[in-house]
Amino acid sequence: MSAFTLLTLKTMSDGRGALTVMDGILPFPVVRSFWIYGADGYTRGGHRHHQTRQALVALSGSVMILMDDGKAREEITLSSPDQCLLVEPRDWHQMTFGPGSILLVFASRGYDKDDYIDTPYERL
Questions:
Q1: Sheet bearing 43-49, strands edge to edge
Q2: Does the keyword Isomerase apply (predicted)?
Q3: 16, 30, 40, 103: least CB-packed within 10 angstroms?
Q4: Domain enclosing residue 38, as ranges
């Protein structure tokens, strides 16, 4: 069992393709959205936040996210666009991108450099 929340998004599929929706599933209002691409093989992130909550969806490819909330540490791989990982402010997150990956991020707040905490949790 994971210490982190991974949502399965409602998806409808038929011979014409698939449609995935986010209607009413996120536990916060979305204020900012952005996507990361062209980062094949690179690691990004490496921070947590004071207040911002996020939801991550790998639209294409796979992204491995190292999550650490100070108590639990876990690697979660997003590899389907119907998976959504919730990232709480306390969650240290570091993403490693597979080939052709596109990561969509929904955030509860606008960008604020003072909201970032660049120090990881210390392990004994």
A1: 73-78, 63-68, 92-97, 43-49, 116-117
A2: yes
A3: 16
A4: 6-114
- CATH number for the domain spanning 21: value is 2.60.120.10
Q: What is the DSSP string of the chain?
A: --SS-EEEPEEEEETTEEEEE-TTTSSS---EEEEEES-TT-EEEEEEESS--EEEEEEES-EEEEEE-SS-EEEEEE-STTEEEEE-TT-EEEEEEPTT-EEEEEESS---GGGEE-PPPP--
pLDDT in tens, the chain (124 residues): 789 999 999 999 999 999 999 999 999 999 999 999 999 999 999 999 999 999 999 999 999 999 999 999 999 999 999 999 999 999 999 999 999 999 999 999 999 999 999 999 987 6
